[in-house]
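Please go through this chain and its backbone structure tokens and walk me through the local backbone shapes. Keep your notes short.
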Amino acid sequence: MSRKSSLPQTRYKAGTSVRTKEFRSLIDLGTASVKTLVIEVGPKQMHVWGHGQSPLEGSYAPDGQIVDYEALVTACDAALSAAEEMTRHTFGHKIVPDRSVWSVPAWLCRGRTVVLQHRRPQPQKRISRREWQVLQSRLESAVRHLSGKPVDIVRAARVENHNVTDATGLRGELLALQAFVVSTDANVLTTLQKVAIALELDPPAFVSQARAVAAGSSGDGVILDVGRWGTGVVVARLAQLADMAWVSMGGQSLYRTLANGFGLTPAQLPSFCQAYITGQLPPEAMATANAALVDPVTRWLDLVVEQLATLAAETSLPHHIYLAGGASRLPAMLQEASRYPWMRRLSWQRHPRVCLWQAPTLRGLTDHSRRVWDASDLVRLGLAWLTTSLI
């Protein structure tokens, strides 16, 4: 396969400055498919020129590790090619970016929080630049001693419980610095780098799936990203990743329940699910499908709550719950999640509101591909919103 860029870098004027147009391929590695975007990052606006998707079967072992390298390369190539071919029509000729941003699958990552607290003996004295830098260095030292290969580090700081980006010049007694670190095994990144090389891409940038999910939240919330084989549980604060977990149950058990209940073959199941999602089944079949999914969805919710209980051990959770991912669109998911007794076992800021994630107004994005974005697109749109910080 040949993926060499057919588009040389171009330059254009923005006011009085001259900037380079940047094109990127974005690759979202899911449990059942690879999804891609081809985007252009300009000085004020990003443009989506193409999107693609390809099934991903047999690439992962039961524990989630990548075992079929060739299948992964093939699926990524198909998804990238679909997005690139679309640019012939949307852009005027084919765009094949050399640079790429990849999401590292949530089930291959772990998140840990490092907290450094400092009580100042002279709180009335302004915080000096040196004092602030010393505290930052101590935090970075603690992060470096964590095991695993860091993928994302989300930093935060507070002075007397007020969030700040730079404490220099402020007064206060208690300073708290925090880093939420998402890491993975080094061999995971090595494998993905080899896939990028096989696709003739430049060395890629990596973002954890959890951070991409948080970027798409537009604020505070608990986001449940439901894939085929599992669910990413993400706590976002101010659209930044604050905590994460993984639930080893996803949409597959729900699809299997529908297939068994309606006597569907594997070939018939996708069109049936699409009709169920869009409300095109007869009313009696809709009611039957909803009833059949009550038990498996409730089991899934119980598993989610177990993980959220560990994340909420020391703080209350944001009161918005968003369902995302392909399986989240099954009507029974929102129906049962809205009925679930969330307040019994968890600490919330107030009674949670559950809704299906919908793409907000594509802030900073101009979409030329004319896709109708839905809950299955959260990760790749999150990657797009994060890409400007990676350039």
